[in-house]
């Protein structure tokens, strides 16, 4: 059985590289997208400081995301494409890094404690399959290094999973 190790570095680029290494080892030989999403959610929630939610939404119809595996408080189950930070990430097929979710037009407040959010689309062959969603109670929690690190992790998830 794989056991995670606490990542002890203040260098964000090194942190994200080690997080990706741990995830790659965790999913080695496993192709199930739900199992991999569950383990990635747990790994991120345990390793990344300052989060109150980490998980997935999957595109189940062309216009709706449905909740997938996550860690944190209960969440919205369905999100329309184009609505909120997650729906906008799908509609625009690009990551959304929001320093203050209360200032984001149409923000969906699943947890009122969330103040900042990073949503990364899961892409394969130019198509959006879903999103990796990270919420924090800390305004401005995510920076460009976090975005790049989680985009790489999302690519690794898609490559490792039969979506």
Automatic annotation (TrEMBL):
A Pfam match: GAF_2
Entry similarity comment: Belongs to the free Met sulfoxide reductase family.
GAF domain: residues covered: 18-161
UniProt-recorded name of the protein: GAF domain-containing protein
Organism lineage string: Bacteria, Pseudomonadati, Pseudomonadota, Alphaproteobacteria, Acetobacterales
Single Gene Ontology MF annotation: L-methionine-(R)-S-oxide reductase activity
Entry superkingdom: Bacteria
Membrane-crossing residue ranges in chain numbering: none
SUPFAM superfamilies with a match to the protein in the record: GAF domain-like
Classification via InterPro entries: FRMsr_CS, GAF, GAF-like_dom_sf, Phosphatase_reg/MetRdx
Listed GO CC annotations: cytosol
């Amino acid at each position: 059985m794989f056991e995670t190790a606490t990542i002890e570095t203040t260098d964000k680029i090194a942190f994200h590289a080690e997080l990706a290494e741990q995830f790659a080892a965790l999913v080695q030989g496993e192709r199930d997208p739900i199992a991999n999403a569950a383990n990635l959610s747990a790994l991120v929630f345990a390793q990344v400081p300052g989060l109150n939610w980490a998980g997935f939404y999957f595109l189940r119809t062309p216009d709706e995301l449905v909740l997938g595996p996550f860690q944190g408080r209960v969440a919205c189950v369905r999100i329309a494409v184009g609505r909120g930070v997650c729906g906008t990430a799908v509609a625009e097929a690009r990551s959304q890094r929001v320093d203050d979710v209360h200032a984001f037009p149409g923000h969906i407040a699943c947890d009122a404690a969330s103040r900042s959010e990073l949503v990364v689309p899961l892409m394969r062959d130019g198509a959006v399959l879903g999103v990796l969603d990270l919420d924090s109670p800390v305004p401005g929690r995510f920076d460009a290094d976090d975005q790049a690190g989680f985009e790489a992790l999302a690519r690794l998830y898609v490559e490792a999973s039969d979506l």
